[in-house]
Amino acid sequence: MSDSEKGRVLGVGGVFFRSADPVALSEWYTEHLGFQTEKWGNTCGVSFAPADMPANAFTVWGAFEANTEYFGDSGQAFMINLVVDDLDAALANVEAGGAEVMEQREEHDFGRFGWFVDPSGNRVELWEPPEGE
After folding, report:
1. Half-sphere exposure (CA, 13 Å, Cβ side) for 15?
2. Coil, helix or strand for 90?
3. β-bridge mates for residue 81, sequence order
4. DSSP string, 13-80
5. Radius of gyration over alpha carbons of the chain, in Å?
6. β-bridge mates for residue 106, sequence order
7. pLDDT single digits (tens) 1-43
8. What is the C-alpha to C-alpha distance for residues 130 and 133, in angstroms, rounded to an integer?
9. CA distances from 75 to 63, 119, 125 (A)
């Protein structure tokens, strides 16, 4: 790679956001979506290895209009999309944990989608990629 080709973005290195109670929110995601959280200084987090992703999964960076309704009614400036192995089971898990699950589902060639609002009020999108070939 030449020097003129360096300095490009290669992928998403993390998603960071505020929570009134980061430890409790991390514990909720561990219990209801199977996160393997770790303590990182004054916060908690989880690392997702690329090898653990389904063959047809990928990471998207997308800018939306400021007045988009896609993120829900919360006024949040971002939305996290999490890759899941079974959309229906994951939505049932978060609903059992007290999350508000949206009724809407979408199915596309590139997978199935569903949404919920977590205990901190964040609207989260779940994506089940199609089976690998």
Report:
1. 14
2. helix
3. 125
4. -------SSHHHHHHHHHHHH----EEETTEEE----GGGS-TT---------TT-STT-SS--S--E
5. 16
6. 113
7. 677 788 676 677 788 888 889 889 999 999 999 999 988 887 8
8. 9
9. 15, 15, 15
Structure confidence by residue, pLDDT tens digits, 77-99: 888 999 999 999 999 999 999 99
Beta-bridged to residue 114, according to DSSP, are 105, 126
Name which of 39, 33, 22, 30 is nearest 89 in CA terms. 33
What is the CA 23 to chain-centroid distance, rounded? 17
3-state secondary structure of 93: helix
Tokens 């916060």 locate to 43
Q: Please name the residues in contact with 83: beta carbons below 8 A apart, sequence gap of 6 or more.
A: 53, 54, 57, 127, 128, 129
Say how far apart CA 114 and CA 81 lie, in whole Å. 10
CA-CA distance, 29 to 98, in Å (whole number)? 12
Six token digits for residue 73: 């009614």
